[in-house]
Design brief:
Largest sheet: 5 strands, mixed
Low-confidence stretches: 1-5, 10-26
Order of helices and strands: HEHEHEHHEEHEHEHEHEEHHEHHH
Helix content: 40-55%
Strand content: 15-25%
CATH superfamily of the largest domain: Bacterial extracellular solute-binding protein, family 7
CATH class of the largest domain: Alpha Beta
């Protein structure tokens, strides 16, 4: 009931604001709903603004997008329903938050560690959507179409103590979530601890956990690197983060020229976002030299045998069975996600 009231109020606010904007500009104005604060300054927020600016430029000013920042229309967990209901035309969906609703589109989350960086994962997601209609059909059930992919950076471990070998991981308490991480850390002899993102800072500072899987940019964004001073280059690969979704009706009702702009932005966005993400990562790594964060190299092949363990393979089989049940032949996808 609370969600319905919230969404109903948001409809009124969005429609009113959009109507005023459209009257003033005489342009078609689409709505982008996001949980990101406008002033976040990270690659996710900056690339959203880039998309908005490019969309307006490429449509010759005929169409534009107004961003409703900071969860003002829908909170993180509400965005798929809000987007499907038409409260927004574009929106950010944190796909791993909905593993049962979008299992195909969460493939990467079952295959950690995997060998691909963020740009390659974005390219693979686009490839799978083109090759396997079931990926789009899964989203279409929620009246959503994917028009962009925003993987997270390649992850290592941020720890409160140095870790140099697989043996050093045994007995450590490592923050864990999702499907693959718990099985992986158990197979390594560590103890997975379920703690959400917002609580991880305190957990690290109070020695409730020893490590958390994360990348440099996110570690700085959440300020984890204030309390954990060892970044371990454990080769976990990129995690899949966000879909840029569109209301499917909005997409279908666009004229052909505007749809072509959106389709081209799907590819161009991934390249631009990845460059912004790399800039952020490089800036953090440079800052770490002054801030006393030690980066520890790790054997790039150290996890090869662990991946073969029964526990890790069982998680991968969960996704394979879901894919087969949806009519997807999984062999090629599995091969692309193998270390």
């Amino acid at each position: 009931m609370a969600l319905k009231k919230h969404l109903a109020g948001a409809v009124f606010a969005v429609v009113g604001a959009t109507a005023a904007f459209a009257t003033a500009t005489q342009a078609e104005t689409y709505k982008w709903i996001t949980f990101k604060p406008q002033g976040a300054g990270d690659a996710q927020a900056r690339s959203t603004q880039w998309y908005v600016d490019e969309f307006k430029k490429r449509t010759g000013g005929k169409d534009e997008i107004q961003v409703f920042w900071g969860g003002s229309v829908a909170k993180t967990g509400e965005i798929p329903d809000a987007l499907g209901a038409g409260l927004g035309d574009f929106g950010d969906i944190i796909t791993p938050y909905f593993p049962d609703r979008f299992p195909l589109n969460n493939a990467v989350g079952f295959f950690i560690p995997q060998p691909n960086g963020p740009l390659k994962i974005a390219e693979l997601m686009a490839e799978w959507h083109e090759k396997y209609p079931q990926f789009e059909e899964e989203l279409a059930k929620a009246n959503i179409k994917a028009v962009g992919y925003r993987p997270l950076e390649s992850y290592g471990l941020l720890c409160t103590k140095p870790v140099k070998t697989v043996e050093d991981l045994k007995g450590l308490r490592i923050r864990s979530y999702g499907f693959a991480y718990p099985a992986l850390f158990e197979a390594l002899g560590a103890s997975p601890v379920s703690i959400n993102t917002a609580e991880a800072y305190d957990a690290l500072s109070r020695n409730i956990i020893d490590c958390t899987p994360i990348g440099p940019a996110l570690a700085r964004g959440w300020k984890y690197d204030e309390v954990a001073k060892y970044y371990i280059e454990l080769p976990l690969g990129a995690s899949f983060g966000h879909l840029i979704g569109m209301n499917l009706d909005t997409y279908n009702n666009m004229d052909e020229a505007t749809r072509k702009v959106v389709d081209q932005l799907n590819h161009d966005y991934s390249v631009t976002y990845n460059k912004m993400l790399e800039d952020d990562i490089n800036a953090v790594r440079e800052a770490w030299k002054k801030d006393g964060v030690t980066v520890i190299d790790f054997d790039k092949n150290a996890l090869d045998d662990v991946v073969k363990s029964d526990a890790v393979q069982a998680v991968r089989q969960q996704w394979i069975k879901r894919a087969e049940a949806a009519g997807v032949e999984p062999d090629e996808i599995v091969k692309q996600l193998q270390p």
